[in-house]
Amino acid sequence: MDKKEIIERLSQMGIITENCYPKTTFPKRGEIHVGLFKREMMDDFYFYNTFDKKIYCFLKPSNIDNYEKDDFRGSIKFLIPLHECSVVWEDKEYVELIDIPYNEMTIRRYACIHLKVPESGVDWLDALIKKSNSAP
Known about the structure:
This protein is an alpha+beta fold. The chain has 3 helices and 8 strands, in the order αββββββββαα. The chain has helices at residues 3-12, 107-115, 123-134, and strands spanning 20-23, 26-28, 31-36, 45-49, 54-58, 68-72, 75-81, 86-90.
């Protein structure tokens, strides 16, 4: 979802703002964060999290110096814990897929993934391989 789509989705909910962007959250010291620039924190900020497909709102803080700073390509970003943001919209509920540890993967499954052959013997993995084969 790009900025235009975020603005459109928010306006459908009665929220009028251009202070929004797509963002990707990341773990740091066992907690999920989003990095925001100072200009983004001058008002309530909305962001579409590309990881969990939700739009969050971070309310304008009274003091941005309460947040840890990090250098991002020569600019300062403030690290905001995701739990301080509220969900205002979600595409669909995130469902964790059953999985096996990488070190337990068979050679057959490894080959099926890389060759894009849906014959791994694991239904959900074969479905993912089929889906990737039909993607443009």
